[in-house]
Amino acid sequence: MVGPLGDGGNYDTVTNLFDYPQMPLSSIYEGLMAYPSGQSRWAARNLLARSIEKSPDGLAYRFVLRAGVQFHRGFGELTAEDVKYSFERAAGLVPLYPGAAKDNTSFYAADFSDLTGVTVTGRYSGEIRFRKPFVPFETITLPFASSGWIVSRKAIEKYGASASQNPVGTGPYELVSYSPNSHMKLRRFAHYHGGNQELGAHNAFDEIDLVLAPNSARSSGQALTVPIESGEVDFADTLGALDVQLLADDPRFTAYRPKQALNSYFLAIDAQHPVLRDIRVRQAIRCAVDIEEINLANRVPPSSRLKAAVARELDVGYWPEAPSYERDVGKARRLLAQAGVRDLSLPIATPNISITTGDPNAVMQVIQSNLKDVGIAVEIIATAPDSFVSQPGAAGLLWGNFAGAPDPYFQLEWFTHDQLGVWNYASWSEPEYDHLHDQLGTTTDPRQRKEIAVRMQRLMDSGSAYVFASQAVNFGLSKSGVRAVFDGNGNPQLHYFYRVAS
Amino acid sequence: MAVIKPSVARDLPAGPGAQSRVRELLSKLSSRPSAAISTAVILALILLALLAPVIAPYDPTHIDVYTRLSAPSVQHWLGTDSLGRDNLSRTIYGSRVALEIALPAVFGAFVVGAVLGMLAGYLRGWLDRVLVVVFDTLISFPAVILGLALLTLLGPSVGSVIFVIGIALVPYYGRLVRAQTLAQREVGYAKTERALGASRRRVLGRHLFPNVVPELLTVVAMDVPGAIVDEAGLAFLGLGVQPPTSDWGVMLGDGFTNIAASPWGVVGPILALIVLTAAFLVLGESLRDTLDPGRQGKRRGLLSRLRRNHR
To answer: A137, B14, B166, B274 — which has fewest CB within 10 A?
Structure first.
């Protein structure tokens, strides 16, 4: 038994709002490729595909499927038609289900940027074509994103609007029952093709019960630890760091602290705020905050310090020379004096605090204390109004965290002009950055991609609107007889879990 | 028909010993050890609040994450909280917030409730009917729900919390004062005053007010700890005063979150709440026994008192 988990309420591959790749979806669905769990390197392997080849011009991917792969609930064998349907549905080229409203489309069409379509060339083979090269298709969409998972066309056509409550995949576990905000039961799929075992999965448990709670009501702190402490569940993650630390030496439990290397914590300084528009004020704030103290308050180890948007765990895009800003109160004061700023008051908030991990309240109090030392009064807003994000210039400071994916294109996407009012919390915009981001999507040479990504991070650094603090850590506990396994970004993968002698 | 001039009416005595009752009350109170002790404790806490900057060993907002959740030591007598702030200093400063909010809320509510209750009870008629409906409507709302709704609208701040706690108390005081006023307006001296042509203001201010209000000081004294607990509860829920202000409710919230790692975060605010609540309850009880000796021996149990104070 696992949990409590936030119940997303939607288990469709292209309309769910889970962070990548969240349990239990990753045990129900599969993609043509996958990143094996239990490894920190991001090396994709074939899963449903027996082979997949890119054309020399980078515009087409030809695939051949494993034969004999079955969908759950008797929906028959996986064919290239299902791949075509899944990808064109995810790209928004066909309706979500027969009769779906026109505006009811995939949330993740951007994962298939400029897809023209999928051509079926045989029962198990086909060709995926793009108008222009889109490299993240190989690094994110195919092996990582839920939008790249294959659905059963027959199942979607049968369930229609309720397909989101009736996930049908080819994965090692099939859904047996689902009671919203209460529980979900998975059973090992009797006709599973066994392909994930080549990647190291164990599929060790006959049944997996998941305890669900409403996302908004999922408590934090010790309440999350109580079910595992009481023996009700066998595994729980996203726990409080301190709670896990306290139980780490308890022989009944095994503690986990996998690094969520692609996730980031950062301070966003609203670049369109009337006062913060002056870059010297933003630089002053960057000098005034104590990142080490912030990370300590947020309960992430010093080794998780992040200096720019792309972490060192990504081969492409890491900027090793990124400046490490240490606290310099004198410099901050000088910058504020040069900008002629006195008696500045700023609000700070965390957008969507209920899903912000770590300890945002503690962090905001540290920032409040840090900035008080340079004469900036910070008011902590318990619940950020929507305008803080949706209206550039309406916020002051925002403490945020983003979930990541293994490609710099994704890691750097949220700071473009298109993201103003959506995810670009600092409302920072730079035309060259946007242009480079487009290039990053279409450039295939890894060395060139690295140069582009580093250049983008330099631009961000010059803008002084984002101060990156750290990667994240996923604190978890299992009973000592169960060993949990995590993917390269610290997300538990149930089908990799296995038993050990306790 | 003889006409008595207002100047003659002004010289009539103000009710049955109204002025001397205060002196008598103080004299009786001072002879009760429980009253003296509780008064001393309350005064000590008020002094603590006033002199917090002198007494507290540290700035209560000073963060030192490197020493967070430390156990009591020579440097930090009550340990430190999750951000390394000194628990003792925060408890001392927390008394300021408790009193800054509880006293204005309770006494403000009492003044408003007393004025409205006296007007309703003395003038009767449509004003009485309207005010009774308003009081009953407010009382019918569960205080917590009313408080949460108002704070959501007003936003969390010291002023909002004072207003919210006060508005929840006003109808209780209004009802009590109205009932007392209805009883007092029919006693001989008040009737005589009215017959002699005394103005409403004179009858209300000189005769009814001094005879009605002291009876209710007991209730007010017993409501102060209730207001402090209410304030701490709202702060615990994140709807009271905001960081970095030191507040017992905020301390309890933080302390309970980290209680498995360090129990010291809750010790200060819990002790402070117990001492202050007990002091006000004992003072209120002493006041009641002094003002209404007939009730001596009919002491209510602690739980019923707590229930009364924890609406």
So the answer is: B274
Closest CA relative to residue A453, chosen from A136, A60, A9: A136
Assembly ipTM? 0.73
Is B65 within 8 Å of A296 when comparing Cβ atoms? Answer: yes
- Which CATH number goes with the domain that contains B150? 1.10.3720.10
**What pLDDT is stored for residue A221 in this prediction?**
57
Residue A369 has its nearest CB partner, among B156, B244, B259, at B244
Domains belonging to chain A, first-starting first, are: 2-221+477-499 (3.40.190.10), 261-473 (3.10.105.10)
At B173-209, the pLDDT tens digits run 999 889 888 887 777 666 676 666 667 777 777 777 7
Task: Choose among A362, A368, A372: nearest Cβ to B82.
Answer: A362
Domain that holds residue B262: 20-310
Decide the pairing of beta strands A207-214 and A45-46: unpaired
Identify the residue with better confidence: A322 or B125. Answer: A322
- Please name every residue paired with A473 in a beta bridge, in sequence order, or none if there are none: A259
User: Mapping DSSP to helix (H, G, I), strand (E, B) and coil, where does residue B269 land?
Assistant: helix
Please classify residue A217 by burial: count the beta carbons closer than 10 Å to its beta carbon, then call 0-12 exposed, 13-18 middle and 19+ buried.
exposed
Does B161 map to a domain? yes
B113, two tokens: 């409730």
Q: Model pTM?
A: 0.81
Cβ neighbours for A46, distance < 8 A, ≥ 6 positions apart? A32, A33, A52
Task: Tell me if chain B has a CB within 8 Å of the CB of A386.
Answer: no
Asked whether residue B55 is assigned to any structural domain, the reply reads: yes
Mean pLDDT, all residues of chain A: 91
pLDDT digits (tens, 9 = 90+) for A381-407: 877 778 888 888 888 999 998 989 999
Distances in whole angstroms, Cα of residue B68 to Cα of each of A257, A351, B71, B262 = 21, 26, 9, 10
Query: What is the number of domains present in chain B?
Result: 1
Pairing of strands A253-256, A45-46: unpaired
Do residue B243 and residue A293 have CB atoms under 8 angstroms apart?
no
Query: The tokens 């889109």 sit on which residue?
Result: A134
How big is the CA angle at A270 (ends A265 and A271), to the nearest 5 degrees?
Answer: 120
Task: Indicate the helix (H) or strand (E) that contains A34.
Answer: strand A33-34
Task: Assess if residue B4 is contained within a domain.
Answer: no
Domain contains B119:
yes
Query: Does the pLDDT of residue B64 top 80, yes or no?
Result: yes
Whether B244 sits inside 8 A of A365 (CB atoms) is: yes
